[in-house]
């Protein structure tokens, strides 16, 4: 098998499954969730210090897919991508009044003894950016700025791998409107956009009434994945379908219909959070616009967070078994893996170049498979061993090239892991199936 052909070959991928067989560097007590263990064992991430992780190539592939989904949906609602700095002047947080509630803040001083913090979220920064523009006309609004950047929070208990990091990747959007009515419309549109993103990811989610906490504002929604290890709790009323974070609703009775007996409380992972903020930050940080009457007025704001690194781990957490990692098709690092026969085997001699031919056909002929096909060219390992590895990493389709590939019309052992199907298919049948 050629190694420098520009193909995705497993033997060349940094820390593939063969290298990482144990949860390296981690004591047992540090592994607190299934997704964390599987992602460490199977070479998706590595821990640097508690709550901070290296994304390895397979993890990056997944993350990039998620970013593409987010970017394409943000574009549909006219989100403009920006990048704010992570190192923030503490005085911004003093101005907004959030510095007092600073238990999760990483704070530091520069060489001139000036106070800075590593931003855990960017409402102040976004507002101050607008105020720097001076008073620009109402005609330039609404404005929707978003970024995908690292956030820092000195979490009390960093755990569950990527799900509760101290450094993590967030997609955050900040909206600015000239009046409450238009700001509410924006809020609804962004919520719909979030619905689309979560639907595209393909893991079942719940949208619930959320808590505004220290963020402020008077309306918020949270997006959750139900999972046993989730640190949030969701109240579901089977009588009226009311859904809320229990922090908001207490739990003895449904705040909407008063029902007391048909209430369900489930553990969940918060994967996204939207806030209608009003003028909480724009007022103190002077994010103004110039009205039709040429008067400076305060902008109405919304803030919308989505934990991208958490989302990847949470998806794996929800879908995997204890032994085998499973991905939503949308986020799997690769969707299909081809296993050529072991080096020196009879099958190898009889099926020369068939794997490469199939690889090229899949990549070239099937929409969406470009860069999504992996060749497991660790040819010193048996097919059986590589099949188990592929199943553990959770590639949706596994194509085994065994002796049937030497038939006059070559047949491939085609495995659909999701539906637990095994078939022998010709190249054409295989392309059609996928
Ligand atoms: P949590 O309740 O889990 O502490 P949060 O309510 O503090 O989260 P937000 O401030 O609403 O989080 O941030 C927006 C999103 O960022 C969250 O919905 C979540 O997806 C993600 N997020 C928050 N904290 C972390 C973290 N420590 N590690 C990874 N992702 C996080
Ligand atoms: Mg938090
Ligand atoms: Mg929360
Ligand atoms: Mg939240």
UniProtKB/TrEMBL annotation:
Coiled-coil stretches noted in the UniProt entry, renumbered to this chain: none
Keyword Lipoprotein tagged: no
Domain Aminoacyl-transfer RNA synthetases class-II family profile residues, every copy: 30-328
Reaction catalysed by this enzyme: tRNA(Pro) + L-proline + ATP = L-prolyl-tRNA(Pro) + AMP + diphosphate
Superkingdom to which the source organism belongs: Eukaryota
Alphabetical keyword list: Aminoacyl-tRNA synthetase, ATP-binding, Ligase, Nucleotide-binding, Protein biosynthesis
Broad class of enzyme this protein falls into: ligase
Keyword Nucleotide-binding: yes
EC code(s) of this entry: 6.1.1.15
PANTHER family: MITOCHONDRIAL RIBOSOME PROTEIN L39/PROLYL-TRNA LIGASE FAMILY MEMBER (PTHR42753), PROLINE--TRNA LIGASE, MITOCHONDRIAL-RELATED (PTHR42753:SF10)
Protein name: proline--tRNA ligase
Organism for this UniProt entry: Molorchus minor
